[in-house]
Write a structure and sequence with these properties.
The structure is a single chain. The protein has 301 residues and is an alpha+beta fold. Helix 6 runs parallel beside helix 9. The longest helix has 43 residues. The chain starts with 5 loop residues before the first helix and ends in a 5-residue tail after the last helix.
C-alpha cells in the first residue's frame, strides 16, 4: 500500500462509518453496553476493596497495658524498651500512641451515656491502665512482634485483633481475585460480542469487497478502510461510555454505595486516569481486531 493512498483510505473509512449507519450504530451500542458493564463492575469492586482495606488498617493495632501496680519507673522502662523496639532495624512497628490513665478516663466519659456512670471516678481512683496503641506494618511477621511485646509488658497485658485482621485481609484478597477473574471473563465476552457485531457489518458489504478484489485491490487496500472504521467506532464508543460512566457513578452508584454509612465512596477523580484509558484501549482493540479478522474471511475471491 502506497503512502499517497493513506488519506484516501482514511476518508473511505469515515465515509463507510456514516454510510452504514444502522450497523455502525449497533456496533457502537454493543461496545458501550460492554464498557459500562465492565466499568461499573470495576468501580463497585474497587470501592468495596477500598472499604475492606480501610477496615483492616483500623484493626491493625496491638494494645499493651500498664496497670497501677506498676510504678512510674517501671512505666518509663517499658516505654524505653518500646522505643528501642521501634528503632530496631526492620522493625514491624509503624507507630504507637501512649494514652495515659487520665486521657483514657476522659475519652470514656466522652462516650454517650457514660459520663454519669463514671462520674465517681477521678484522678485518685481511676481504675483504667496506661495504654500503648501500637500499629504494625506487616502481618507476616506480627507474631514475632507479639512475642517481643509480651517480653516487655507481659503476655496477659497484650490485646490484639489479629484474628479479625487476618479474616478481613483474606476477604479483601478473595474479593480482588474474584473481581479480577469476573472482569476478565466479561472482557472476553465483550470482545466476542463486538467482533460478531462487526462481522455482520462486513458481511453486509461482502460484495463491495469482492468487487475491489476483482479489480486488483491489495489486501491492505481493502482492509484499511474497515480498520479505520473500527477505530472510529471504538473511539466514539469510548467517549460516550466515559460520559455515561461518570454520570452512573456520581449520580446512581454513588447514592447506592453511600447508602451504607460505613462506606466512604472513592472520589470520581480517582478513576479519571484509569476508566477512560481502559475504555479507549478496549474500543480500539475490539474495533481493529474485529474489523481485521472479519474482512480477512472475505478477501479470497
Amino acid at each position: 500500500m502506497r503512502i499517497r493512498n493513506i488519506p484516501h483510505l482514511i476518508g473511505q473509512g469515515f465515509k463507510s462509518f456514516w454510510r452504514n449507519g444502522a450497523m455502525t450504530t449497533a456496533a457502537i451500542l454493543v461496545l458501550i453496553c460492554c464498557m459500562l458493564v465492565l466499568g461499573s463492575f470495576y468501580v463497585i469492586i474497587d470501592n468495596l476493596d477500598n472499604f475492606i482495606e480501610k477496615q483492616s488498617e483500623e484493626i491493625k493495632t496491638i494494645n499493651a497495658y500498664v496497670y497501677a501496680s506498676d510504678d512510674k519507673e517501671e512505666l518509663a522502662n517499658k516505654k524505653a524498651a518500646l522505643d528501642a523496639l521501634c528503632e530496631k532495624e526492620n522493625s514491624n512497628i509503624a507507630k504507637y500512641v501512649h494514652i495515659t490513665k487520665a486521657e483514657a478516663l476522659e475519652n470514656m466519659k466522652n462516650q454517650e451515656g457514660m459520663e454519669d456512670v463514671l462520674s465517681k471516678f477521678n484522678e485518685d481512683n481511676n481504675p483504667l491502665p496506661e495504654t500503648f496503641c501500637i500499629s504494625f506494618k506487616d502481618f507476616d511477621t506480627v507474631q514475632q512482634l507479639m512475642r517481643e511485646l509480651e517480653e516487655i509488658f507481659g503476655a496477659d497485658k497484650i490485646k490484639s485483633e489479629l484474628g479479625m485482621y487476618e479474616a478481613v485481609n483474606n476477604l479483601s484478597s478473595t474479593i480482588t481475585l474474584v473481581g479480577f477473574w469476573l472482569m476478565a471473563i466479561l472482557l472476553v465476552i465483550a470482545i466476542l460480542i463486538i467482533m460478531n457485531t462487526v462481522k455482520l457489518t462486513v458481511f453486509a458489504r461482502r460484495k463491495d469487497i469482492a468487487v475491489m478484489r476483482y479489480i486488483g485491490a491489495t489486501s491492505a487496500f481493502v482492509t484499511s478502510p474497515f480498520i479505520v472504521e473500527g477505530i472510529i467506532v471504538g473511539l466514539v464508543a469510548a467517549i460516550i461510555s466515559t460520559g455515561l460512566q461518570y454520570y452512573l457513578y456520581t449520580g446512581v452508584l454513588a447514592d447506592i454505595i453511600s447508602g451504607y454509612a460505613a462506606i466512604d465512596i472513592v472520589p470520581a477523580t480517582e478513576y479519571i486516569a484509569i476508566v477512560p484509558v481502559a475504555f479507549l484501549a478496549l474500543g480500539l482493540f475490539a474495533g481493529i481486531i474485529a474489523s481485521a479478522v472479519s474482512v480477512k474471511k472475505h478477501l479470497d475471491v
